[in-house]
Amino acid sequence: MAEALRAVVVGASLAGLRGAEALRREGHRGPITLVGDEPHRPYDRPPLSKRVLSGEARPEAIDLPGQAGLDLTWRLGAAAVGLDLPARAVALATGERLPFDRLLIATGTRARPWPNPAEAALSGVFTLRNRDDAAALRAALAAKPARVLIIGAGFIGCEAAAACRSIGLSVTLVDPTPTPLASVLGTRIGRVVAEMLRREGVDYRPETRVEALEGDAAGRVRAARLAGGGRLDAPVVVVALGALRNTEWLAGSGVAADAGGVACDGLCRVLDRAGRPVDGVAAAGDVARFPHPLFPDGPVAFEHWGHAVEQAQHAARTLVGPPEDHGAYAAMPAFWSSQFDLNIKSVGLTNGADAVAVTQGSLAERRFVAVYGRAGRTVAAVSFDSARWLPAYAARIAAGDAFPPILGATDQGRVAPMDPGFPQRPARG
Fold it and tell me: Residue 159: what pLDDT?
């Protein structure tokens, strides 16, 4: 009977919690066990690099709503270490084995550490991914260090720089690319972010690599040595080098999973090494790699808040009902970021874009919409304090309209497509 079916959700963050909610909503009556490697109940991650670092919010005050009334069994602080598909069981680091009939994999990502383990272990070196990371870094910032060095000018690095400046700290931000957010926005739009950082007092240093971190005799970080010469004194270093997907626990399970994520089909069903769906096993959120109808180059993985919610719900529907009844997951990717007084929002995916055009507003005013094209088709739109246009562009992206898709609007000047300036990826040898 359906009431006796056992569900296990591995990953106690946004996708895991919303997946558990959706399982109940879709009619799963049996027990649901939610497994998480952290000791905390599910919480909201976006505030960690913003309001928690600035002291506006306490780390323990950002729990996600919706945790009551689900009749869940919690296994927190107990990482999953293996998956036994023939036995239909998840192995935990505690030695416990959790049998399942339905399994949702939502293990997400972790912060990419500083590559030298000895240097990464120096006191004063931080990454920023979970609640404990944010609490420890907030305590270090509250001590008013003479300088905070942030390595990496992606979204986390830029948001952390904004939070540090908001409490009056001196911040140096270094990155090997020519502008912040270059891999996501391209250097043409990234220059706007660079100008904002400098205007807000951030010592932003593009095309700069940190070669090593130096510590003192007590094991505290004291400085960063730069490639090509030079040295930056810094008692606090934030490593913001992106994320790693949590798939190692699936090694040897027969599931198709690697550093790029857990392979899924369009219905969110996890695939085995032969490319076949595994009965009763689905994945969602940052860890899932799947085909998306808008992106023909192959499977994609998104690290977006809204995507984690929507895909978890879709995966739950797949697990509970006939999967084909719900169709393929095709939600429009979208993200947002707040830095200083600027709100950046995006729809679509800029990957592979070969052109960008400012269709509303102007770069000089830092209030605009930039639309990205690829091979003559509109693939993404990014707004800087101009989000009202994004729904119209999302519809054009979904329809595969020509680039640029909206011309002749009342608040639109001359639209001139430009090279977006995405950095060249180094060749792999």
Answer: 97
Name the residue among 93, 57, 48 with its Cα closest to residue 75. Answer: 93
Give just the sign of the alpha carbon dihedral 174, 175, 179, 184.
negative
Please report, for residues 135, 186, 241, 298, the alpha-carbon distance to residue 178 in angstroms, rounded to integers and kept in the order given: 31, 9, 16, 28
**303 touches 109 (CB < 8 A):** yes
- Report the percentage of the chain scoring pLDDT > 90: 86
**Distance from the first to the final alpha carbon of the chain:** 54
* Helix (H/G/I), strand (E/B), else coil: 287: helix
* Beta sheet of 367-374, edge-to-edge order: 334-339, 342-348, 377-384, 367-374, 355-362
Domain ranges of the chain: 2-110+244-326, 117-241, 341-399
Higher-confidence residue: 88 or 297? 88
Phi-psi region of 55 (alpha: psi -120 to 50; beta: other; left: phi over 0): left
163's CB contacts (< 8 A; 6+ apart) are: 49, 50, 51, 53, 54
Mean pLDDT score, 106-132:
97
Element (H, E) at 335: strand 334-339
* 381 touches 334 (CB < 8 A): no
DSSP state of 250: G
Using DSSP's 3-state secondary structure scheme, residue 237 falls into: strand
Domain 117-241 is of which CATH architecture? 3-Layer(bba) Sandwich (3.50)
Most confident of 65-79, 274-288, 380-394: 274-288
Give per-residue pLDDT as tens, 173-211.
999 999 999 999 999 999 999 999 999 999 999 999 999
Tell me what pLDDT residue 410 has: 59
CATH of 2-110+244-326, one of 2.60.40.1940, 3.90.550.10, 3.50.50.60, 3.40.50.300: 3.50.50.60
Q: Supply the pTM of this predicted model.
A: 0.94
CA–CA separation, 124 and 170 (whole Å): 15
- 180 contact partners, CB below 8 Å, separation of at least 6: 153, 154, 157, 158, 173, 190, 193, 194, 197, 204, 206
The overall longest dimension of the chain from CA atoms, in Å, is 69
Contact 105, 10 (CB under 8 A): yes
Least confident of 83-97, 276-290, 316-330: 316-330
